[in-house]
Description:
By secondary structure, the protein is of the alpha/beta class. The chain contains 16 helices and 15 strands. It has 2 domains: about 50-300, 3-Layer(aba) Sandwich (Aspartate Aminotransferase, domain 2), CATH 3.40.640.10; about 305-415, Aspartate Aminotransferase, domain 1 (Alpha-Beta Complex), CATH 3.90.1150.10. A 7-stranded mixed beta sheet has the order 2-8-7-6-5-3-4, sandwiched between helices. The protein has a 4-stranded antiparallel beta sheet with strand order 11-12-15-14, with helices on one face. The model has no long low-confidence stretch (mean pLDDT about 95). The structure holds pyridoxal-5'-phosphate.
Amino acid sequence: MSLAETISEPLNVEEIRRSFPIFNYPENKGLIYLDSAATTQRPIQVLETIRKFNEEYNSNIHRSAYKLAERATAGYECARLQIAQFIGAAHPHEIIFTRGATEAVNFVAIGWGNKFLKPGDEILISEMEHHSNLVPWQMAAKRNGAILKFISLNQNGELELEALDDLVTERTRLVAITHASNVLGSRVNVKKVIEKAHQVDAVVVVDGAQHVPHARVNVEDLDADFYLFSGHKMLGPMGIGILYGKEKHLDAMDPVLFGGSMIDDVNYYESTWAELPWKFEAGTQNIPAVIGLGAAIEFLEQIGMERIEAHDRSLTEYCLNQLEPLEKIRIFGPHRQRLPVISFAIAGIHAHDVATFFDSRNIAIRSGHHCARLIMRKLQISSTARASFYLYNSKEEIDKFIRVIHEAIGYFSRWN
Ligand code: PLP
């Protein structure tokens, strides 16, 4: 029986959890993992795929005539094809393997930015970006004399896209925008941003690190110029990420890493580059992680992205409906149009203390600025506690989370 056949509507969380060894590990008994926005757990199908590579056909790709390496190459390139299909890319060679979303942004900021940004050009980003989609643009602006401009975040945790008409000008050369916030869960209408940017021929880079794991993305339909995300936030291994780029942009921009595997010809003082996608994949890649990411996508597809999205939405609404009436709780971000990421504060208590209290009850949540200091500045806070859910979380876990919230409010009120 396939995984899909064992899972009825809505998601059979108990059945899904059986695929995740971490939840069955004796030391983790009773653990409620609510930190999938930081990294997700990995199903046995992914772990087995990596084990198989290492035990059965570990070898380097592309350069060998023997069977072991042919198998590794086939696995690697097959994963590229799977990923291209998963996000609706027109060609597999528009998929570049990187170490993660962070490296992917840097590839564009350096490889595209250094070649095409000129003094006085404007780069438009938002106040809701993860540092990964902010700092590389600060550096690109400094290197190339470009000017950074920001789409504002309002107090509801939504971007003020109405201001696009004023913000996008003839000088706008590039727009870098998140598809969903890792702090507020807010989803962004990136299609609207892309349409507006394309009216002035600006290039748009979309950070899909939080969106791709939770809802179907089609880069062709969005008409995104670049789109990037990380494997470890979508059940895949760490150390692997994706940079999607339209063929014309990838062809036009420069490689960022130089060395083996990315050349066409090499002479004493000059070299020429291989064609796409290999021009961007210098050196030995994280081959088992690539193949493992392919297995993660297969797992997600078997369950169905639409069902995962519905499950996530129902958990989030269930949780918010119970949190919102609580007097001592402040919730950050919008009620609707959000991913399963809930940042909150308990009045008078530091987020780290909240997270430590939850840990003492065997619930893993995150606290801090979540690599999004501009959001903290805008909302005039230093940190939040954050709970994030995924396909292996259940309503019973949310019930426990809410019980511990009540407990925490009671516990800390004694010290206030
Ligand atoms: N963008 C967003 C929205 C994120 O949430 C993260 C990680 O939390 C990143 C980018 C960076 O991802 P990575 O650390 O995997 O490169």
